[in-house]
User: What shape does this take?
Amino acid sequence: MDNHMKDSNSLVKLALDVLKNYDISPSAVTVVQSGSIKTVWKIRAGSETLCLKRLKQTYDKALFSVNAQIYIKNKGGNVPGIMLNINNQPITIYDDQLFVVYEWLNGRDLNFDISKDLELAVKGLAKFHTFSKGYSPVENARTSSKLGKLPEQYASMKNKFAEWKAIAADNASAPHHSTYLKYADSMIAIAGRAIELINKSSYDSLTGPGSDSVVLCHQDYGKGNALMTDNGIYVLDLDGVTFDLPSRDLRKIIGKLAENKNHWSVCLINEVTDWYTQINPMDEKEKHVLYIDLLFPHWFFGLVKNIYKSNKAVKSAKIEKICKLEQYKVPILDSLLQNK
Assistant: This one.
């Protein structure tokens, strides 16, 4: 028997042992995803199909995200339902590992590069955000929140740009360092402008206590986490949910699309925000914060941190490409910011 078969068999046995904590009798267990702590099994139990998942979170973090999912489901949101164990708990601890059983959903992954699918995905996200409002973490949960942190995060990233510029200057003979040097001042200037704008905006009041704008952001909403079903768009994999403004998820979607297309446009930004606000309205102050967040050179930071934080090689052409894309978006976002 090869190692793969042994691993698969041991994972099936693990699943069967965990399922003894539930009022179900499995007839078939299949490993769907493995290779790390995060493991997924498909469970057949009579006429039911279920999903067993081993979490990679700590218990206090899992309490936050799992109960958030239960809250959204109970409010009418499209997220997978969670089955309680025989102790009436949503999380099962077995052999110092955490497990949750979800309903199994059939459907197709939405393709964010297709306009109609993108519209469905954005509207599905807006519904998810709407149903997440009012969530209050249970006792002993570690609350995840990004509220109020943008100015500090922007300043930290801008300071990193300056630190890395000094490192690049000392190693300018290397192509990737010389390319970084070529664009560093431009990226620092864009970051500085975003800091100035966020400090003058309504960000503090929008993220403050009692704000109606606060939602649970998914943080990783994309292909694989947006499922088209017969009952509408379902949002999957809520492990990373955090309190924030909707702009966090929207910025990531818009930025990813712009990066994939190698092109920024007012049309794309307006399309996404128009679809979103049909379901969950955003006032002009919220949109203003989104435009500022899109202006900050997040995508440049995401690439070059591989060089300076992770010591990974990045080709000069890739740095050049992302820098030109960051520069290209500035007048586009300026036009949106000036209209507010």
